[in-house]
Amino acid sequence: MNIEVDREVCEIHAQCVFAAPDVFRLDDDDELVYESAPDERHVAAVRHAVSACPVRAIRLLDDAS
Ligand code: SF4
User: Fold this and answer.
1) Rounded to two decimals, what is the model's pTM?
2) Gene3D superfamilies recorded for this chain (predicted)?
3) What are the tens digits of pLDDT across the range 35-61?
4) Domain count for the chain
């Protein structure tokens, strides 16, 4: 699974951090940091993060759905 966050769109709502804390986090400067190729065991959490993001900034690159 590969994911991408559109940083032009992301508004640091941090809903993804709550949904998938093993994949997304905020650094000390409140910038979003994320694992671009998270392990498959995080698929459910990442899908939750995608749907939770209020500005639809997260994309699953290798997922047609
Ligand atoms: S939930 Fe969306 S807008 Fe908020 S930090 Fe995550 S990607 Fe950015």
Assistant:
1) 0.91
2) 3.30.70.20
3) 999 999 999 999 999 999 999 999 999
4) 1
